[in-house]
Every structure is written in C-alpha cells, then in structure tokens.
Design goal:
Elements (H helix, E strand, L loop, with lengths): L17 E3 L6 E4 L5 E3 L21
Antiparallel strand pairs: 1-2, 2-3
Length: 59
C-alpha cells in the first residue's frame, strides 16, 4: 500500500491541477482555484458501509 494517497480532484472546484503543498504531510494546492487544503485519513469503519436505500446489505 502506498504511504501517501493522492487526490485526483480539488474538493472545491473539481479541477485536476493539484500539487503537494510545502505546508506538510497531506497538504495540497489547487492551481485552478488557488485554494489549499489538507487531507487526513481518520481510520477504518468498524461496521463497514451500509446502504441508505433501506437495504441491510453491507458493501
């Protein structure tokens, strides 16, 4: 598994012009909208994901 996950799209404008920021681990800059943001992995869900359509099936 990779040590660093790479975002494919800016969470603000959706553009793909992203580059790592000098602000540290998980920090990214978007060249299209000139915003900076940080990504952080919080952990795995204990139960997994559940569907919101009323089904009890796990994904």
């Amino acid at each position: 598994m990779s040590e660093r996950a790479v975002p494919f799209h800016c969470p603000y404008c959706g553009d793909e012009d992203l580059r790592p920021s000098e602000e540290g681990h998980g920090a990214w800059e978007c060249g299209a909208c000139n915003r900076a943001f940080r990504l952080k992995f919080l952990g795995l869900l204990a139960r997994g994901l559940r569907r919101t359509d009323g089904g009890d099936e796990r994904i």
